[in-house]
Design goal:
elongated, 283 residues, 10 helices, 4-stranded antiparallel beta sheet
Length: 283
C-alpha cells in the first residue's frame, strides 16, 4: 500500500478525496439541505464513486500484474544483482583497507609486494547463515586499471537481460545512477596513477562515501541483505592461489607433486623478505 502511494501519489490523493466525499455524503444523506447544495453534493458523490471504482480496477488489472511480473523478473535477475553488489562492496572494502590518504593529501596504496604492486585479499560475505569466505584473490596494478571495464560489463549484462516494462522502476533508477557514476573510471584509476606521487587527492575518501550511497540505494531496491567485505590473505592461502593458478599444479600427475609446489610457494611467502625476487626456494 505504501509503495503504491509513493509511486502513484496524485491518483492516490484524489482517491483519498473521493473516499472522504463518498463517506461524508453517506453520513449526511438524511440531513436537511440547509445550504441548497444537495444537487452538487450528489454530483460529486457520483464522480467520487466512479473514481474509486476506476482506481480499484487499475489496482487489480494493471498495478498488481505489474508487481507480479516485477517480482518474477527480479528473481531471474537476482544472481546478476548479487554479482554487481559483491563487486562494488568488495572494491569499496579494498579501497578502505588498502588505500590511505596522508596528511598532505597524497595517495598511499598498501601493496602486498611494493615492487610487484600486488593486492592479496580474501572476500568475505555475511548473510543470515553467518559469515563465510572465499579463496584468496590476487590483483595486480595492471588488472586494477581495467576495473572500470569490468564494472561496465556487469551493468551491461544486467541491462541486456532486463525487460524494462517488467522491472521495478526503483531498480532501474538506481541502476541508472550507478551507470552514470565515474567512481571506477576516475576515482580508482586516478588513485592508482597517483600512488606515492607528488599530486594530492584528498577527495578520495569522500568519493568512496558518495558511491557507497548509490550502492546502498541499489542494494535496498533489490532487497539484498548480504554484506561483503575483505580480509588479508594468509600465507598458505596466497601459496595455494599461486600454486593453482600460476604454477599449473592442477596439471600435475600426483598429489605429491601438487604438495611439493604448494609447500615451495608457502615457504616463499614465509621468507620473502630474505630472498630476492628472482631466486627460487628449493623444497
Amino acid at each position: 500500500m505504501i509503495k503504491f502511494i509513493k509511486r502513484n501519489a496524485i491518483i492516490s490523493f484524489f482517491g483519498l478525496i473521493s473516499v472522504v466525499i463518498s463517506a461524508s455524503y453517506a453520513i449526511t444523506y438524511n440531513t436537511p439541505d440547509y445550504f441548497g447544495i444537495e444537487s452538487w453534493y450528489s454530483l460529486f458523490n457520483n464522480i467520487s464513486i466512479s473514481y474509486i471504482a476506476a482506481l480499484i480496477f487499475y489496482v487489480l488489472q494493471v498495478y498488481k500484474p505489474e508487481c507480479d511480473n516485477s517480482k518474477k523478473a527480479q528473481v531471474i535477475l537476482e544472481p546478476l544483482f548479487l554479482d554487481l553488489v559483491k563487486f562494488m562492496e568488495v572494491t569499496i572494502a579494498c579501497c578502505r583497507k588498502y588505500v590511505s590518504v596522508s596528511d598532505t593529501g597524497h595517495i598511499v596504496i598498501n601493496w602486498w609486494g611494493k615492487e610487484q604492486k600486488i593486492l592479496y585479499f580474501v572476500p568475505t560475505v555475511e548473510d543470515s547463515n553467518g559469515e563465510s569466505r572465499e579463496t584468496a584473490v590476487r590483483k595486480t596494478e595492471l588488472e586494477l586499471r581495467k576495473i572500470d571495464d569490468i564494472y561496465k560489463s556487469k551493468i551491461r549484462k544486467i541491462k541486456d537481460r532486463i525487460v524494462f516494462r517488467d522491472c521495478d522502476p526503483d531498480i532501474l533508477n538506481a541502476l541508472s545512477k550507478l551507470e552514470a557514476s565515474d567512481f571506477f573510471k576516475f576515482t580508482i584509476v586516478s588513485a592508482l596513477m597517483l600512488d606515492r606521487g607528488f599530486i594530492s587527492f584528498s577527495g578520495f575518501p569522500s568519493s568512496i562515501d558518495k558511491f557507497e550511497v548509490l550502492k546502498d540505494e541499489f542494494k535496498k531496491c533489490c532487497g539484498i541483505t548480504h554484506k561483503y567485505g575483505v580480509r588479508d590473505a594468509e600465507d598458505m592461502e596466497m601459496a595455494l592461489n599461486e600454486t593453482i593458478f600460476y604454477k599449473g599444479a592442477l596439471s600435475k600427475n600426483s598429489i605429491e607433486e601438487f604438495d611439493e609446489i604448494l609447500y615451495r610457494e608457502y615457504l616463499k611467502k614465509q621468507f620473502k623478505c630474505y630472498f630476492s625476487r628472482d631466486r627460487e626456494i628449493k623444497a
